[in-house]
Amino acid sequence: MKILELFGGIGAPRKALINLGIKHKSIDYVEFNENAVRSYNAMFDNSYAAQDVRGYDLRPDILVHGSPCQDYSIGGKQYGGNIEDGTRSSLMFETIKIIQNLSIWKPRIVIWENVTNVLSARHKRAFYHYLDDMRKLGYTNSYDVLNAMEYGVPQKRKRIFVISTLDKQPFDFFKLEQKEMKPIANYLETNVDDKYTITQPSMLAKIGPGKGVFNGRLTPITDFAWTITTKQMRCPNSGIIPVNDTQYRLLTERECWRLMGFDDYDFDQALAVHPGRKGKLNGILYHQAGNSIVVDVLEAIYKVMDF
User: Quick one: a GO biological-process term for this protein (predicted)?
Assistant: First the structure.
């Protein structure tokens, strides 16, 4: 089974296949962010170079793409992703062009993941444009919003997954095996460095219970984290950890990677090529976690696919 990863990030689609023991060949990986490429190469012992998806021509069995979400995200600037916009999120239409260029040969399965805000009134035109283009190419589309919490991961991360198949049989999301959420303690480190302790008065003033991740508060984590984003030194963020009765800390980079489904070996390989500055938070590794796909959710999807 040959897989092509577009906007590949740190390789969640490939990691899920490895975890499941599915025999596969990664025929290529396309990612324009050089830091993500370095982490991917370190984790999977590859030598890929940073490259753009536009004009690319390959023949995979399964194509997975998670085009940049910043222009759809509620937390972003919401520029949109219509093909004529020329935004980062409009790059999803480059996937359409790649499939068109393959002529009579097409990948049997195409998976697209993005933020749920693509279904909002402001952005749904681009979303349905993508679905219509896939239908014209002969695909049957199915989509659903999946929450990582329902697949064992203590992270409230809702993402839309569009699965397009060539065999006219729609993908059945009801077949996905949901799992009991694991304890958040399984993902947290002990003996955490003081650099993660929150000391900024502006952040301390906003600590307290909230109603959601975008409510302008810093919410203490009890059972689960909020969506892992590309930065933690901001308000709001993915949640904070109580250190004692009066102190709180940020999630560490390693904890964010764990909450995205990567193991410590993966993190250590990426850390080796992105060591960061001593005593400072590692913005590169936070960014790579926040931009990834939760591996456990991809595993659930792969399990019910006929490869």
Answer: DNA restriction-modification system
- Structure-token pair, residue 132: 């219509």
Q: Which domain holds residue 158?
A: 2-180+294-303
Residue 87 has pLDDT above 50, yes or no: no
Residue closest to 285 by CA, chosen among 241, 235, 228: 228
d(CA 79, CA 77): 6
218, 203 Cβ separation under 8 angstroms = yes
**Does the annotation count 235 as an active-site position?**
no
Give me the catalytic one of 53, 69, 225, 297.
Answer: 69
10 Å CB burial of residue 207 (0-12, 13-18, 19+) is middle
Paired with 30 in beta bridges are: 6
Q: What is the CATH number of the domain that holds 11?
A: 3.40.50.150
- Number of domains forming the structure of the chain: 2
- For residue 282, give the CATH number of its domain: 3.90.120.10
**Is the pTM of the predicted complex or chain greater than 0.85?**
yes
In the numeric block, the tokens 């003081």 are attached to 194
Region 48-62: mean pLDDT is: 74
Same domain flag for 148 and 201 = no
Is there a single domain that holds both residue 195 and residue 147? no
